[in-house]
Amino acid sequence: MKGRIFSVVGGMFLLTVCSKGDRSAVQAAPPAPQPAAAASSDVPADGGTITGKIKFTGTAPRNPAIDMSEEAACKAKYKTSPTEENVVAGPANALANVFVYVSAGLPANAKYQAPSTPVTLDQNGCRYHPHVLGIMVGQPFEIINSDPVLHNIKAIAKKNRPFNVSQPSAGMKTTRTFSTAEVMVNLECNVHGWMKAFLGVRSDPFYAVSGEDGSFSIKGLPPGTYTIEAWHEKFGTQTATVTIAGTESKPANFTFAAH
Amino acid sequence: MEAEDGRGQQVRAVWRFGGLAVSVGILLTAQPLNRLTAQDTTAGRVVYVKWCAGCHGDNGAGDGEGAHRMIPPPRDFTGAIYQIRTTASGQLPTDADLMRSIDEGLGGTAMPGWKSRLSDRQRHDVLAYIKTFSTFFADTSLRPKPLTFGKEPGGGTGADALKVGRQFYDSIGCRKCHGDQGRGDGPSAPTLKDDAGHPMFAADLHESWRFNGGGTVGDIYHRLRTGLDGTPMPSFSDLLDQKFLTQAELWRVAEYVRSLSPAEAPVVRDVIHAPLVTRALPHSPDDSAWTAVDAYWFPLVGQVIRKSRWFSPAVSGVWVKAVHTADSIALRVVWDDRSQSPDTAWLGHVGRVLAALDPDEGTQEPPALWPDQLAVQFPVAIPTGMERPYFLMGSTSAPVYQWRWVSTARTAAVAGLARGIDRFDSLPSTGVGAQSVYDHGQWRVVFTRALASPDTASQLPFRTGRAIPVAFFAWDGSNGEHGTRMAISTWYFLALDVPVPARVFISPVIAMVLTLGLGMLVVWRAQQKTTFRRKQ
Fold first, then answer.
1. Which of B81, B175, B200, B249 should we substitute to test contact with A (largest number of A Cβ atoms within 10 Å)?
2. Which domains does chain A have, with CATH numbers?
């Protein structure tokens, strides 16, 4: 949380599917996946692609169990006891929920239009879905409550205006937007101290969140040399430099150390 | 006071000189008008450095000298996140909002009101200066707009309206943090933090005089609508926008919350009057006999005299009732405490409290499961003159007599002699009884003892009709309080009232009757004489 790097950059890019997280344990239907592409004025139709796999070495810390005894309605949505999602790992030490974005190298004056399709954060089973997500400046951020209990959604931000709104009823929907790029905006519920989500706000569409197999893909990059940053809530950040010449696909793999 | 006045004069002098220099500067350079803004903040800076920086820090980051002695910490102006606003959550406050906090201060916190201490000009200048700490105020696209609050509907204090308010209090989840009875003891209360991770208490809704943004129904309604940004308290405005609740219904919640506190903030009365009761002494805290007895409120403050000092006490005051019979006394002390310590659920909170406060005050020790405690203090004997032992637990040469109750031994109290803050010697066979109840964020403890004392040298014999000094000390274990880290009061008095004897009322009546009778006799005699003379 501390020492987070706020990268300064004009940017470009394209959003991929947000992490599926650990949704399988929840019986209720997950929200629709995010749109795969943004309608972006300066995104070439046939740019380059950066793909990669994210792994970690060592033993992943155990995700603490969540005591939901105060919220029967949430507890009933789980067959097995739910845990926090601090480190979501796939097979072969694949690392999910890593926010990958272009932190430097985009043309300074490039303008990218935010899609009007909202990015949705669902509160379901007293957990956030997804746990890590990206959004463009100006793109609608839609927060919905699928639980019949009180949630408050507090956004803790430094470059953007923070907010704290309540949703005491199932079916409530709150829409907000962000004005400035910020990695990351922390989202939390104070009623349920374990509920945390992380939102990467970018002024370009060139970002992705790694899936459970640790893979990510950033498409539509114009030729150039880019600094790619990978952010994880527990393991910190890593960077890589990737040069794109045309419509090629270049790899950028990251390995975090579990500590 | 003199020092304050001196400083005030200094400020005025600086001000006058500064003002003169500024005027001369304007005349000499004939700068365009926009330079005036910069000059305003220069004047504001003088006020800020003198009066605000001690807590809020030279750069407005809330990290001044006094900051690590405060929970909640002083406002960090650099993020422009303000609790008390009339604007939607996430919006900047209006100038009027900021001026309200400067003028009135923030109830229940270390922030005082400045209306009577600084001139209008000084307060406006410092307001302008505070805004320079954040770039958000310079962003013209973020101009704050107050919400439309509407008017409070009528009938808010009626039973039906309060019932509606209570219903929504439950349904919109207030109880999650503020608790079933509103004492800030809800299931989520132990986990609450502000944006920076500092520990936060959910407000005790029975103490409206300590609400950060004011304790009127209107103030409460505004906080429900705007939330308290930077804290866990969210805005409930979306509920109205999406028609889950009407404005009138949310007003009912505010009215219900207000109804939990006394109509007026409690006033300190120095003497606890303990009436004589003819029935049995009420040993239980919830004995119906207590309802007819007057309650006295005494504020408690942190113990900041002896190290380790304590700047963040959780118990803000005690409500005291006392009665006596011909041979015994019962004293009931009631106080709000969000936790029934020791409670593992609060261990994280203890850790955050200790981490937030000055490590020089012994707060670097690891958090532990400390119990709640209460001490009632008397002198060893009723003083004959004005002199009383040192209020902070006496001294080696002049000890004080105390009753101590600990939440881990709920139906017992220990009596003993305190010889200073760090020495307590319990006495054998003290005859002090205690019964306690913990109920939704409130402790109620009754102490009982015989009036007479078998050991008059160290255990105060209670006497009727005398002013007996009394003081109170409280510890909330789940707030990291133990030893010298506690809340304290000064000396007050306890008086065991005796019924006024009947002769006090009868004697004047007899005297009046006699006087009247004698007067009439004199008049009658005089009239007799007159008649006699006429006949002659």
1. B81
2. 23-257 (2.60.40.420)
